[in-house]
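Work Package 3 committed the consortium to producing structural models of liganded targets before the mid-term review. Because experimental data for this complex are still outstanding, the team generated a predictive model from sequence and the ligand definition alone, so that downstream docking and mutagenesis planning could proceed in parallel. The input record is reproduced below exactly as it was submitted to the modelling pipeline, together with the SMILES string for zinc ion.
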Amino acid sequence: MGPAEGIRRRGFRKWYERELVESHLFLVSAFLCLIAVVALLESVSTAEGRAAQAGLVILAAAAGGVGFRAWYQFQRQLARAERFGDQAHCPACDAYARFEVLAAGEPARPVEDGMDHPWIKVRCRRCRREWVME
Ligand SMILES: [Zn+2]
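The resulting structure, written out as tokens with the ligand in place, is given here.
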């Protein structure tokens, strides 16, 4: 579910809160994977037989891959939530998180930082001013 749909469904405040919680669960997952990698690699020296050792190394590599992916997702989700959070004040009347979603989309050209940059056009519920969060 994209951010526009999440905001439309839950309202900005709840969406934002949830994004922060979710992103930090990815952070915890990344940390647990790191611990697993260290534990698996430590047990390689005491494992009996080459097959068992190779299995442990493969498991450690897999845990490392999952952990890296979780770390990436943590950063991506947190950055996006903060970017939208910074733009949630109405530029005209300064009302916070009091807007409705009018439209949403992706940028015409990909931005080169590897993150996704969806934009959301919104309208203030208080003064009707429209602006674009991106
Ligand atoms: Zn306003």
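Reviewers should note the following from the model. Residues 3-133 form one domain. These observations will guide the Year 2 experiments.
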